[in-house]
Specification:
With 256 residues, this protein is α+β, with helices and mostly antiparallel strands. 16% of the residues lie in helices and 50% in strands. The protein has two domains: 133 residues, Immunoglobulin-like; 118 residues, no CATH class.
């Protein structure tokens, strides 16, 4: 390899390229993601130290009365051992990994993508980005189904910077906003907000904020002071599923 080719490779000119192909872009949180990373060599021989996949999302952070978009890495997975790729050579590396249970659901403003990067010795790292559609995990879906049976419909979902009281592994939480469009709580509640604080395969912990509808002057006064909101902590396991709808109805009825 000539001196000029070495210089070009060191600044990323003519370097290898990565392209990730997913078996299915529809994925459920907690389940397996499968695909292939295709690597095509550039104009020079190069050593690929590492291929990594980062599961990424964006959340809203507020500071000085302004809102900012911030990226967050949910998981980072290394999928290879070091290898050398020759000029114009093509290699395909299959991969599979479990999507973390706390990956945000891609509803509303919540977006999730997989960032593929190559760690190339003495070169600018090429990268690739692939959006995925993340569906609720099993226990999340059971909760959403129960709320739907009670007449609630999801209106909004957004990732927001986590307050200190809810801060866990990730710097944000996903907030789901529901409104009662029919059923026993229509006209009684303004909205219902759900934040999952901890999600595992066998347990989901959450905070449910019940926003009562203002009734008369006293109700309006309470609403102005945000006294019409009640936060309830819940924990759901498989044992709760048969009675989940009744349990939710009883809790919401108590505070509505």
């Amino acid at each position: 390899m000539s001196f000029f080719n070495k210089v070009f490779a060191s600044v990323g000119i003519g370097s290898a390229k990565a392209d990730t192909r997913l078996l299915d872009v529809n994925v459920r949180a907690g389940e397996e993601v499968k695909g292939i990373v295709g690597v095509t060599g550039g104009k020079t021989e190069q050593e690929i130290s590492e291929i990594y996949l980062s599961v990424m999302t964006v959340y809203v952070k507020e500071a000085d009365d302004k809102k900012y978009s911030q990226q967050a890495e949910i998981a980072k997975i290394k999928i290879n051992e070091p290898f050398v790729i020759m000029p114009n050579e093509h290699k395909e590396i299959p991969f599979n990994f479990l999507l973390p249970e706390d990956t945000p659901v891609t509803y509303g403003q919540s977006k999730v993508w997989i960032h593929t990067g190559l760690d190339i010795k003495n070169a600018v790292d090429p990268s690739d980005q692939d959006a995925i559609h993340v569906h609720p995990g099993r226990l999340q879906q059971e909760l959403f189904n129960a709320l739907g049976e009670l007449g609630f419909q999801m209106r909004k979902a957004e990732n927001e910077a986590a307050p200190a009281t809810l801060s866990k592994r990730l710097p944000f939480v996903q907030e789901f906003e529901f409104y009662p469009y029919e059923g026993p709580f229509r006209g009684k509640l303004d909205e219902l907000e759900i934040v999952f604080t901890n999600i595992r395969k066998d347990r989901a912990e959450l905070v449910m904020e019940i926003d009562r509808k203002a009734k008369g002057f006293s109700g309006l006064f309470s609403e102005m002071l945000e006294m019409d909101e009640t936060a309830v902590r819940l924990s759901i396991t498989d044992r709760d599923l048969p009675q989940l709808k009744a349990q939710l109805q009883q809790i919401i009825q108590r505070y509505s």
